[in-house]
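Interim report, section 4.2 (structural modelling).
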Amino acid sequence: MTPGPAQVAVRGLTKAFGGAASPAVSNVSLDLPAGSLTALLGPSGSGKSTLLSLIAGLLAPDAGDVLFTGRSVGSLPPERRPVAMVFQRPLLFPHLSVGDNVGFGLRMRGVPSQQRRQRAREMLGLVELDGYAERSIDQLSGGQGQRVALARALVTEPSVLLLDEPFSQLDSGLRAQMRQLLAALRQRFAVTTLFVTHDQAEAVEVADTIALLLDGRLEQHDEPRAFYERPRSVAVARFFGAANIIAGTVCGSVFVSPLGPLAVAGRGAADGPGHLVIRPESLRLLHAGEASGPNTVTGTLTRSEYRGTHLVLIVTVGPVSLELSAPTCHSAVVGQPVCVQLPPEACTVL
Amino acid sequence: MNRLRHPVGVAILLLGVLTPFVPLVLWSFAGRWRYPGLVPQQGTLRGVRLLADPTSQVLQGLATSATIGAAVTVLSVAVGVPAGRALGLYEFRGRSLVRLLLVAPALVPGLAVLLGTQVFFLRYGLADTRAGVVLVQLVPAIPYVTLIMSGAYANFDVDYERQAALLGARPWQVQLHVTLPALRPALTVAAYFAFLISWSEYALTLLIGGGTVKTLPLLLFAYAGGPDPTEAAAVALTVIVPPLLLMALVVRGLSGRGGTLGLARS
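Predicted structure of the assembly:
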């Protein structure tokens, strides 16, 4: 195995399955710096797992190539690629003990059994399962099983680690623990990691960068913050929970919509029809008597929902409903007129 | 299986299985056994001597049966396992037709097509040879192995093979270290069935072997029609005991580690 993390370059990968109307993965190009952790995000059926299988070599692409540190691995079968993969389920081999499961990859490479056991024990220690080597795998809980699977994948020190929704079958508390464990393991093992998930919160938490796949196409590959502040398209904004998407016309730095003319900052979209995107947490509810700034609209508070950490308020302005989040101590009364400000710097026009 | 460990249950089971063999065992050591005696009046070792006597051909028959049985087992597993994998794991055109053709030999009585088969064996010089007998016994043995293995593969999760490959296992290593251990119970049963089919085959062996290839069932029929029930009983025991010993080995193998359905799909 090539030592050290690989820089991964995906070049125009396309894969269509027989009978499907559109390709599962369509002309995806992606660069992953060596040692980075990238979340491959998308709703189910967006082609994330297919893309992962193409990189792993489990599927042959219709077009395109995969390069590890500049060298094409397109013609290599999965077992010859310096990758390790963890699936949704632990897939531990039931006829082997926990320790022998962890040592499996080393055994396949002909590492002597004494050394194998030693390394397996060390790996189990790193995933906080000291003393589990002799146990049988049906003595493990779901979270423990997935930790063993992680140890088994990392024991051979792969250059690329592929994780296919590895924590999706665990409950949320366990999932948080696993994410911390993954972060700790990254300190120890420099490995380029691609992490498939459909959970945007999880992607934002674990990843250095996020690659968002929608309908088999790479919509945006950026740092997590950009998906909130600079979404590339309405679809991206919608996937990341930007609830306020208002159709209108853009003309210079003014956006005309049923809300009236609004000043918008930031990159100038071409004049013509477009969408104004603003996140619920960027909208400001003005207190009575507060001096109104630019982009202030008046509407009626039609709904208020308690969400534990915040309130979700729906304000109706003419034909438009705006969703905004407010602190739970907010005392607006449903049915009353309220003033809402859309800060120009938070308005994105797409 | 654990529930059967109850001593009374085990006793009843053993009684039911073993009782029919009691007269057989008694007969094979009976020198004189006349009505109304409940047990033989006189014992003899005539039966045992017969087995050891080279002119009786019993030991030779045992060797012939064992050789042919082993060959049929190995060959039917070699063909039936890949066929079972194809039927159990993959979707392809004509799969149900292939399945039907495979079950056909198990459904159609062998005797019905045997005479036609024999013509071919005569034409290709396979009649009266051990190779010919092995070949004709494969006809009923392969479907059994294939069907058992297709069922096992249908329950096998190929993700385990993918996982093994992604841990660096070459295709042969995947088969040896992952697939085979997972399918071991089914494979053991399938091989045992193939052996049993061969071991107890009479009609096919008689016609294709032409009396030259003398397996144990052929000898048993000869002795059963003979004048001495003691000799017949001794030969019958020789036919029965080896599969029972094998069965004990199979059961021990199945109850060991990995004896569950292993890598079953969840």
